[in-house]
# Entry
Amino acid sequence: MSTTAQHLRTDAKADTVPRSSAVSVQHVSKTFRIPQEQYHTIKERALHPFRRRNVDLLHAVEDVNLEIARGEFLGIVGRNGSGKSTLLKCLAGIYDIDAGAIEINGRLSPFIELGVGFNPELTARDNVVVNAIMLGLSRRQAVERFDAVVAFAELEEFTDLKLKNYSSGMQVRLAFAVAIQVDADILLIDEVLAVGDAAFQQKCFGEFERLKAAGKTIVFVTHDMGAVERFCDRALLLERGGVVDVGEPVSIARQYNELNFRRIRQEAIELGGPQTLKDAPVAELMRGRFEQEDGQPQFEALQGEPCWIRLEVYFHADAVDPVFAIALQDRRGGTAFAASTQITHGPTGRFKAGTTAVVRIRFENWLAPGRYQLLASVARDAVVPEAYDVREQISSLIVHAHRSGGGAVDLPHTFEIS
# Structure
């Protein structure tokens, strides 16, 4: 590796002088070369051996600087294509870096991509042992911890089944269970947890709490702003490979949503959309979250119990009867529930510039078990409301149930049989 690009790892337990940083990232860049023309057959390559191939350069990560303290829970957020996963793979050593230096002080356990490191032709038992050894355990330790791994993954009945016969959700559970059993100092976790079902996701979130309390360093890539605010000590926002900001989770979540809305506004301008999207915003969604009746944040709920959503909207200009709306999206992106003041409330009143509206929505929670993302908007009142602001994935809620009918919702019902 060149002197301009270094990827160093040291065992924190072997250091004679303690270091304050678990991870140090200094001026790191990673660029991919994408050929404009590709050879699909050997014959094509043989016929044109000296043809010059033009390439496009994709600057996935550009001049990133970051220090992650020991025991810190850091979230990495950004839109699709912003470089989040690439940066995580650089930290894990999966990708070589083109410039800069990365120093890892401690044992690293990456949980980055579904199926990486697994052999589909081997059984779960063999895969667990092999992966645990690769992550730093001795063979004896790997065998001793096998039962704990499969118990956490809830796969006791499938240990001798080849991995190629596992579903994606089963593979996620197994991979995560291995990652947390290797006594790593630093865990790298990508958003692949979204593949698991709601019950397992909640189990993983509980494990996050345990690892955080144990002083582990965790780097977590996600689109879930609710999870960022819930777990992270700090968050990093990336856009087009560069650092936008590093700071408090609430501030980073707000900036992330602003970037998303800017994209919506730009698309509206390009497509000749409503004038309200082209002008300076009249209203801005500052915050949205699920909460309990007493106003405390809520991250999980039992089916059948009422839930509340709180929105805070700041008005930059006077507005008359703005329309407030929310939608809950399931993990497949479908809308499970939507509500709007235009339909169920009517006129909302006049709001002066410089004031903040607090909107609270109560609903009976008969959602099917699963994880739901909150989408919120504020718009100008019209036959077809024109958006002032739209925010996606600003909070999440995991719904539990004692039993489920298998539909999108479990509506209260009775049977009459004669």
Observations:
- DSSP finds eleven helices and 21 strands in the chain.
- The chain has a mean pLDDT of 84.
- The first strand starts at residue 5 and ends at 10.
